[in-house]
Amino acid sequence: MIYTTHYRSPIGDILIASKNDKLIGLWIENQKYYLAGLKEEITENDNIKILNKTKNWLDRYFFKERPEINELELEPAGSDFRKSVWKILCKIPYGKVITYNDIAKEIAREKGIETMSAQAVGGAVSHNPISIIIPCHRVVGSNGSLTGYAGGIEKKIKLLELEDVDMSNLFIPKKGTAL
After folding, report:
1. Catalytic-residue membership of 136
2. Residue tagged active-site, from 26, 121, 130, 136
């Protein structure tokens, strides 16, 4: 059984999902891949410990307290490749951004291969089922382009500004994904 609850945030309604007392999803209203991959029965329940703990985490996050990811037990569903990308996302500190290419190089190093496709990394980043907490919004194009956020570019900007990211070298692309 999957349990869900809603959270009202400064960037819109957020749906939070859990299974077996672990956080499995956090989606911003109208984002791409909303509830993607959930095939089981879903029941709304505001009395689930991990869901309430996540709401508290989000309260602190939106008040700029910078809670740690490891305060929550996460269990995002995905392939081993996607999970390896999401693990790297969890290492990006508040106030910093990295590129899809940076992640591709890290994956290549981990796998002992010469190169990894930044596009493949982009696909994994965009399918992150636990937005905000697994900070996919901290990934930008190699040229500083703020592309690729399934929640929408305007929400990505608000999250980066909330985290005090230096936005001086970042820009909204004229054409791109997830705009």
Report:
1. yes
2. 136
133: closest CA among 72, 65, 52?
Answer: 72
Tell me the residue range of the domain where 123 lies. 80-162
Residues 149 and 123 in one domain: yes
Q: Give the CATH number of the domain where residue 42 resides.
A: 3.30.160.70
* DSSP line for 22-35: EEEEEEETT-TTTT
CATH number at residue 112: 1.10.10.10
- For residue range 15-40, what is the model confidence (pLDDT) as tens digits? 999 999 999 999 999 888 777 777 88
Global pTM?
0.93
CA distance 22 to 172: 35
Among candidate residues 46, 71, 96, the one where a domain is terminated: 71
